[in-house]
Structure formats: C-alpha cells, structure tokens
Amino acid sequence: MLKRYKIRNYNFRLVIMLVAISSLGVLLVGSADPTLQRKQLIGVIGGLILMLIVSLMDFSWLLNFYWIIYALNIALLIIVVLMGSSKKGASRWIQIRGFQFQPTEVCKILLIMFFAMFLMKHEDDLNTFRTIVESLALIAVPLILIAKQPDLKNTLTIAVIFCILMYVAGLSYKIIGGTILVVIPLIVVLLLLITQTDLPIINNYQKNRIMAKIFSEDAEYSDDLRQQENSITAIGSGQLGGKGLNNNEVSSANKGKFVAESQNDFIFAVAGEELGFAGSCTLLLLLFGIVFECIRMGGRAKDLSGTLICCGMASLVAIQGFINIAVATGLFPNTGTPLPFVSYGLTSLWSLYIGMGLVLNVGLQNRTYPGGEKRYEYRAYRTRY
Fold first, then answer.
1. Which residues cross the membrane (predicted)?
2. Which domain does 242 fall in, by range?
3. How many domains does the chain have?
C-alpha cells in the first residue's frame, strides 16, 4: 500500500496553490461569518493532513476494492434517503452525535475512483453495447438516489463528470455524436415541459428558480432573483481593489446581509466586494491552475485509471467552480453549489482534499515510475472511431 516514492515527483506547485486558495477561503468565510472562521481553518488543516496521508497510499492498491467502494457509495446514499436530516425542504445530510456531513460530496470522489477502475478494466471493449449499458446502469443508481434527496445540481454535476470520464477512457466519436443528437432534443422537450406545464417533473423551488432566470422581467419571480441581483451589485461595488476584508461600510452587501449564504453559495460575491476585480481574478487563476495541474498529471499517469482519477478531479473542481461563479454573477439560475476550497463546508472541503491526495499519488507514480512505462498505452486514440 505504501511505497518508496521519489520526492522530486511530488507536485509541490499543486500543494502551494491549494494552500493559497484555501487560505483565501478562510479569510473570506471569516469575513462572511466570523463564527465559522475557526471551523474553516481547522477544516483546511485537517484536509491538508488527509491529503498528505492519501497521497502516500498506492492508488492502484485502493482501486482493487472498487466494487466495495461502489457498494459503500450506494449504502451512504440509501441512508440519506431513509434517515437523512431535512433542511430547507431537502434531505441531504446525516447527523451523528451533533456532527453533520453531506454524503453526496464524498460520493463524488468514490464514483470517480470506481469508474477509474471499472473503465480501465473495460478499456478494450468500452465501445461495445454491453459495456455502455453496464456503465449507464451503474451511474443511474446513484443519480436516482441523489435526485430523490432532492439535489438536482449534484445530479447534473455527477452526470457531466461521468460523461467526461467516458470520453477520456476512449468512447467512440460515433457514439458521442449519436448521444448528442438524442440528448439535446430531450433537454429542449424537458425545459418546455417544466416551463409550460404543471407536471411535477422537479420540485417547485427548483422550477421557480429556472422560471425566474428565463422570465426575469416577470414580477412574480422577483424574490427568486433578488439574491443574485444583490450578489452582482456586491461584486461590482468592489471595483478594482475591493473594499477590504472585514470592512464596516454600511453599503456592504456582505455586512448588510443582503446576500444570503454568503459564506457558502455566494462566497464569490464576498470576494468580489472585498477583494475587488484583482482578488476575484486571483481566485480564478488559482482554480485554473489546480485544474491544469490535475490534467497535466493525468497525461503522465502510469495507466488509464490514474488518468481518469486526475481528469475526474479536474472536472469536479472546474464544474463546481464554474457553476458557483455563474450563479453569483447571474449567468445560471440560483443553485447552492460551493466554490471549491473556498466556501464553508467541511464535508466538501475534506472530500476535495482526499481527491487531491489521490491526484498527487498518481503524480508520484508517473510513467517513469518502475513498471509504469510497461503498463500504460494510449489506446483511447485507437478506439475513437
């Protein structure tokens, strides 16, 4: 499980960027809600320790238990559906002696690990009907359980990550093209059914948020848009250099509580207002750097499973970061997605750090690692057509 690694293969650039963005997160969370800053700091320290431990564990050894990982993932989601604690109309949390955590955040990492091994095992027959059906069936079970919580954003996030993993594994362009031709009309029909009928396809609050985005000028949905409008105002008010952390300006959207969940869903509004355009760009560059390093290490992985772990984590950080910022800037309907490594939430933070630990271990076992050059071939390019 533990091996002798070469220290020069440890990606300290990624570690430095993770520490930097998490430090900014601690400052921003403390500004949004001072009572949570200590917890966030403890979460970052604990996350870094978890990342270090996982980074020294052989990811290939861990993936040998991929069916146990999948079973654990399903078990956690079933527990949430049956015994999860409710908050704001959704049952997404498990309470254990006063400690609350959201299993869906952990399940994202578990699913990336599972499909990294499953798809590598089926690399040679990935484009066969049987493998595609098995893959869809395996992802459908957790997606249905997550959708029942209800948690539409994470359902869509995991579905997109699954599609990216299938593409990276070598899914044929013919199958991808045929799927797109089928999926796009289905999405259009689904949106028409949601917006033009009263069919109970999604929950009412989810429908209202979508309707508010499409019919933004309708006074009926003004309440659903107010948070995003206040967020946009806060970001714009920061101008180039921002108002400064923990400022006491009366007009502050953060201090004035004009933006709800500013420590989590709208943390980018706090960054825009208090750190300005410069600080917001710094956050974006750090996120981009983390995603880039994950992809770069994936390209040097010793086998396909390592590549899929790195690309899966890169996709998770990129998708969640994009959604969070798109919501804060009014591009997407309001949905509660945390900004990776910045928003408050220990379950999300620790899960991401565990995932980054796996990425770092993949980097330690690159193609120059003993045995790596013999185990990995770029078969994906051969199986595209």
1. 12-29, 41-59, 65-85, 106-122, 128-147, 159-192, 275-295, 307-332, 344-364
2. 16-383
3. 1
